Fold this protein.
Amino acid sequence: MGQQGGSGSASGSAGGGRTLPGGSAEALSTAYDTALLDLDGVVYAGGEAIPHAVPALAAARAGGMHLAYVTNNALRTPEAVARHLTELGVPAEASDVITSAQAVARLIAAEVPAGSPVLVVGGEGLRAALRERGLVPVDSADTEGLAAVVQGYGGPELPWGRFAEACYAIERGAPWFASNTDLTIPGARGIGPGNGAAVEVVRIATGAEPRVAGKPLPPMHRETVLRTGAKRPLVVGDRLDTDIEGAFNGGVDSLLVLTGVTDAARLLAAVPEHRPTYVDADLRGLLRGQPEVTEAAGGFGCGGWTASVRGGSLALDGEGEPLDGLRALCGAAWTEAGEGSCRLDADKVLTRLGW
């Protein structure tokens, strides 16, 4: 899967350090054949659909776009995720869901014999993925012939003793795998600790380093390619360090939606591998074209706005849609930062835009 560039233009590519957000004359749902959608913070949060997500996905699907759901959350099986999506009003089959549990199970299966026992620190999603690959999930570090340890998000009720079992096995030489290392996970009440926080517990206790499969790393991209067959994919996510970086690593375009963990300030400070092709408020962005950011006299223009750097701060002139102002600011901030992270003061301009 290669960089598509939309039907407009953008400065830089997914693999080359983007300096301007991209533009697309076509609706993204027709410019790309497949949306690779993150779930938490994009389609739902805390189990409830995010506003506008259900009708936007229905319209994209009705227009011929294939929808695939790609999640680093290894807790639930694809069947359970598909059932939940269907209950929310987003019809889905298990085959439409790709999880980090599937990616890590494939990684383990390539290195240990079929039928090997694997210690699981996580939920049913990990267990089902291991069984799919012919491996045997177990709960004790004392299991005879234990071949590996795998750790994935197990929900808020995961017993502390599961971490101890992982530590015992790793200290005895078992290779350690992790589905993903997202430090946080969005929920109905706010942002909570994710699997990455739990991985840190075992890392601190053992001094070991896990092999990780999930976004933004290649095993997850490979799993997605194998299971979707996408030709012109668009990664859609709310996280810069997983969704957008994963798209960067895979050389494909991305849409950041501002319904999850990434806010406008983090977006402006994004390093090259975290800069999305497109930015929109929510999944309705799939249904429309994306305005182009252009170099204007003394700055960068989008819609009715012009963004520039003045006196060590980001400045914004004009008026119009707040999202266009944010896109223009991305052009100014990313160009100023080059291959680094923009450290210019942006509080005043973001307050003006309502962020």
Q: What stands out?
A: The two ends are 34 Å apart (CA to CA). The CA atoms of residues 318 and 346 lie 16 Å apart.
